[in-house]
Amino acid sequence: MGVSVPIIVIAIALHLIAFVVAVGAERRRSTAKVVPDEYDEKTYCRYGTDASTAYGLTAFGLLLISQMVLHGVTKCLCFGRGMMGGGSTTCAVFFFIFSWVSFLAAEACLLAGSARNAYHTKYRAVFHVEHLSCATLRKGVFAAGAALTFISMMASILYYWTHSKADTGGWEKHHNEGLGMTSSVFTEKSPSSEGQ
């Protein structure tokens, strides 16, 4: 199997879009402030936009699709043909493990960030008596997911490239390979005909 440029372009595009959306999620995190209720003497949390939840889940889905495409093409290293031995196989195994670790870490950050961002404090407190704390997502969760998405992209592309090299042994198969060999095999004298 050789390196397919369309597969690389699709994988890079999906990863980069996921990266940009994750950065957007970090910038659009929910903010909250304690405001007094106009009808009674209680306070409650007023939250801003929930856009980063949708952004985080979109980045999660794009990263998942990209990982499925790359590992579907390579048959996830485990279910394909055997690979040639050597340095390329060792690198392919290393980048396979590294791409999965960075992928799972990125997905965990994006999913946890989306879930935490969607959580809003529902209870109320008595005005000037109780201190109400509004639950919000910590700064940097989506940023970590974006960074891990970028690392996952690099690891996945390097895995795909080294897997392709190890799968073909570093050589491209040539058309008409072996046609010159057939005539020489049949023109040699057999040992039994020499003795006659």
Label this structure with key terms.
mainly alpha; 3-stranded antiparallel beta sheet; elongated; 6 helices; 196 residues
Portion of residues within helices: 55-70%
Content of β-strand:
5-15%
Mean pLDDT: 79
What Rg, in angstroms, do the CA atoms define?
Answer: 28 Å
Measure the end-to-end span. Answer: 49 Å
Count of distinct strands: 3
Shape: elongated
Could you list the spans in which at least 5 consecutive residues all have pLDDT below 50? 169-176, 178-187
Number of helices: 6
Which class of secondary structure composition applies to the elements? mainly alpha
As laid out across the biggest beta sheet, the strand order is 1-2-3
The major sheet is characterized as: 3 strands, antiparallel
Question: What's the helix-strand series?
Answer: HEEHHEHHH
Summarize this, please?
This protein is mainly alpha-helical and 196 residues long. The chain has helices spanning 5-27, 51-73, 87-118, 141-168, 179-187, 191-194; strands spanning 32-36, 42-47, 125-126. Helix 2 runs antiparallel to helix 3 (87-118), helix 2 runs parallel beside helix 4 (141-168) and helix 3 packs antiparallel against helix 4.
Task: Describe the protein in words.
The protein has helices at residues 5-27, 51-73, 87-118, 141-168, 179-187, 191-194, and strands at 32-36, 42-47, 125-126. It has a 3-stranded antiparallel β-sheet, with no helix packed on it. The protein has 6 helices and 3 strands. It is elongated, with a radius of gyration of 28 Å. Helix 2 (51-73) runs parallel beside helix 4 and helix 3 (87-118) packs antiparallel against helix 4 (141-168). With 196 residues, the protein is mainly α. The chain starts with a helix and ends with a helix. It is found in: Endomembrane system.
